[in-house]
């Protein structure tokens, strides 16, 4: 039997039309460092039409052509987010923190024809241009030193001049919903980046999920700050979801350091924000050093790497902000699981659920595959690599303009599931706990030690600001953990003494004392013998701990390691 429902494609242009009309008054606020620029969704819709006309009529962009952005989170980036896919082209968001040679690699792999670039980022783009064979146009957005572009091959345009006097309506085409809409490359630390191509349909369905009570649950009463960069998995879907629900957007532009972020929150009074843990850790330190009024913030989503429970508690207890933990990846659009506690549980009883990676929505189906290749039970014990499938989960990587989809066997199972590379457990009621990245887990004498668990315990110590634990080779055990700790400033000053930190008395932070602290929390055989104190944990281009670099520094003998005797008491 057939259904009698209309077959209407799910398109980004529908989100744009809806947001800019029904929610025409909703604000897009862009922080300028000491104030803000303001536009409405209605104005944004009109400017999207002007941008689409400029790209089509002047720059001759055709369906399926790639238009890249090298931009901060701001109103103009939002315009590109909607205009480019809605007109039938593909938005390629460039990660401005990638090493320059990788940046050139992804532009060439995607064969981008246009790059929209913030003026402040021209010094990054200009030296690369001779290597970017496909780029025909550079469009400069905002102020910057354009003299660095003198003599470059691509034509140079000013964004505002390009938009000026163009029609404020555009006949957005009826596209098949499976048409490519946006392209984002993974920021993996191994090998070349991999391109993930989102479709109109996957973006639309993902947006519907973002706004449900199972996920971010945003509404037009919210002012949301995507601190997560717009080049990192579509800013976790927030811009698209915002247009669905008329959610106000507060864009931090390039002011992402803790001080300016705190100033912006105090001045503009957002209700919600989203970012990786390192950003929030920095903000907490900033607020302890120089208090600001962040009382407008009710909820923040933390994801992108495991959120230390101590960070969650500090936000709650000191600032009354509820932290919600989420898991996802570039390949999952990114929302996979989201940690709301089960119905009826509050206070201490809710914590074990809130610090987990949470539950999956119906649209994202998980399974755990153990080391022997068998599916593991959902009993909170069975451990395996997480595999997922669903309508906003990648089924392949982009193979390049002249190649078909790329499905490497280590990333996609023979029956088409995405192999996430994350190892964990799932409880009977569906709560996921990621114990490690498959490549970061420490394999000691045939047993697995979770680096994340050791890190979380160490970061709960008042004298420890950051901690990263990595596997190092060991003659007897195969691998053993090396704990690299960053001490809190007060504690560093007190030279591992017993000073007071902003989280309470520091206690001793000598390796032996830190290990005794851990001994009360994890089994003895997991306790690290090797310890090193570092100034900062190295971070990847999207702000996650770069454990590969830490392992390399250890292998090169660059770390000052103290080795304790094996623990026995
Ligand atoms: P990316 O594609 O750069 O967003 O990286 C995705 C990876 O980040 C995942 O495969 C996980 O290893 C890690 N990740 C993301 N969110 C979490 C989380 N809440 N807890 C632990 N790891 C996470």
Note down, in words, how this protein is organized.
By secondary structure, the protein is of the alpha/beta class. Among the domains are: 8-201, 3-Layer(aba) Sandwich (Rossmann fold), CATH 3.40.50; 364-438, Luciferase, Domain 3 (Luciferase, domain 3, Roll), CATH 2.30.38; 440-563, ANL, C-terminal domain (GMP Synthetase, Chain A, domain 3). It has 17 helices and 27 strands. An eight-stranded mixed beta sheet has the order 2-1-11-10-12-13-14-15, with helices on both faces. Strands 7-6-5-3-4-8-9 form a seven-stranded mixed beta sheet, with helices on both faces. Helix 1 (12-21) crosses helix 2 (41-58), helix 1 crosses helix 9 (238-245) and helix 10 crosses helix 11. 51% of the residues are buried. This is Long-chain fatty acid--CoA ligase.
Bound molecules: adenosine monophosphate
Q: Approximately what portion of the residues adopt beta-strand conformation?
A: 15-25%
The main pleated sheet reads as: 8 strands, mixed
Top-tier CATH class of the domain at 8-201:
Alpha Beta
Indicate the percent of residues in helices: 25-40%
User: Strands across the major sheet, in which order?
Assistant: 2-1-11-10-12-13-14-15
What low-confidence regions span 5 or more consecutive residues with pLDDT below 50?
none
Which structural category fits the helices and strands? alpha/beta
Query: What's the pLDDT, averaged over the residues?
Result: 94
